[in-house]
Amino acid sequence: MQDQAKANKTIVREYIEEIWNRGLIERFGSFFATEYQEAAYSPANSEGHCAMVAVQKRIMPDAVWSIERMTAEDDSVMCELTLRGTHQAAFKGVEPAGNSIHVRAYRTFVLKDGKIVHHSALLDTAELLKQMRGQQAA
Fold first, then answer.
1. Helix or strand run (H / E) with residue 7
2. Across the chain, what does the average pLDDT equal?
3. CATH code, domain with 28
4. Residue 109 within a domain
5. Structural domain of residue 8, as residue ranges?
6. What is the pLDDT of residues 83-92, one digit of tens each?
7. Is 120 exposed, middle or buried (CB count within 10 Å of its CB: 0-12, 13-18, 19+)?
8. Distance between CA atoms of 56 and 101, rounded to whole angstroms?
9. Residue 66: in which H helix or E strand, if any?
């Protein structure tokens, strides 16, 4: 059981580095099962997930996700992350001013046979938009 949790954490670490930090959406199939379900992005499948990675890379090409905490139990992994980057393209009506971004997010994963079958995420979007507008971080 402990070995499986450790293996799942390794898969999630590699996913965050390759997909979110490096933007290698062509590697999506290496991490996600064909029956993958998305709970954070629309559409609720790999298309929605890849579209959000592309949005992030467009608005913050230098974006980096750092894992602050990661826990795993049975088939699940949960991460607390920090997103850092520079706002460089319009997002939700906020024009870029080159502001530094530093926001928290939480991601949960369910894995089966070494592949991610379910993902959900919670990002502090209000804080993200506030920082994009150049207002002080909370």
1. helix 2-15
2. 93
3. 3.10.450.50
4. yes
5. 2-132
6. 999 999 999 9
7. middle
8. 12
9. strand 64-73
